[in-house]
Amino acid sequence: MSIAIIFLFIGTFPLQNAAAVQKDQAKLLEERMIIYKNIEVITNIPWYYIAAVDQYERNIRKVRKDLPDPEGILGIYFPPEKWSGPINPNQADTNPKSILIFNGIGMDGNGDGKADSNNPEDALYTFANYLHKYGSDEDNLEIGLWDYYKRDKAVGIITGFAKMYKAFGTLDLYEHHFPLPLRANYSYRDTWGDARGWGGRRIHEGTDIFADYGVNVFSTCYGIVELKGWNKYGGWRIGIRDINNTYHYFGHLNGYAKDLKIGDIVRPGQLIGSVGSSGYGPPGTSGKFPPHLHYGMYKDNGKTEWSFDPYPHLKLWERQTRQKARARN
Ligand SMILES: [Zn+2]
């Protein structure tokens, strides 16, 4: 085998693999959408709420060690005591009648006579039916969600997901974009976890992308604007939560995109503000350090939130954004 052929083989294999993964993902999303819409027809709960709950639970399970990893098509998970009833002697009960007697939540959604928490239709039907007791309009759905999760943040995240699914009419909201224009003059390196002095001992929870004042800052994802305003460390900043329940934080901005407000839906590549040097003092403080975008990423597990290193993601999105721009030309 010549070197050229070996190179070709190594070079193309991962690409084909990536395309196959993408195709599998598209098929999976299609299958999920069919189930969500079926449940909407049976229960009157809008598909985007059902999809939002399922997605919230999928994300939580991926990052929590005390919950089983999501298997199969759905993310929603019912602990056995919730499904079959807390004092049900058979915690693997699939009989709808005995589950009902023991005050379990589990129901039969696909009409096979069994209430199986591992069956997608049974699981989603059960949840949608629970919500339906509260009503199917948005205010009542939020009350139902609060009663179930007992956490304001969970309700906020789920209603945000529902808003995004409704607005875009698709489950495929995973695209990302580099936060600065690729043609701008910028530089960044991996400094996550470095010590930071100002305002007490802290670690650096992000990546600093150095660029001139006024350079455009774009949303890195499909998401909901969750935070906008001043903080003595971050200056003028914006926080956006994406469909993976990752929180994207943009700090030290010079200003915001016109009309952008909390609760707005944004797309990857949408203008949200510009690079500045705001922060390290009372509102309006600027120029205490060279202009840069402080970009942070945070993960939520249903209980707490923590920072992780955005640098590898920025590198990936920079490459993907460049490839997309080339493909358009
Ligand atoms: Zn920073």
TrEMBL record:
InterPro entries: Cell_wall_metabolism_enzyme, Dup_hybrid_motif, M23ase_b-sheet_dom. Pfam families: Peptidase_M23. Residues 203-301 form the M23ase beta-sheet core domain. Transmembrane segments: none annotated. GO terms for molecular function: metalloendopeptidase activity. This is M23 family metallopeptidase. Keywords: Signal. The lineage of its organism: Bacteria, Bacillati, Bacillota, Bacilli, Bacillales.
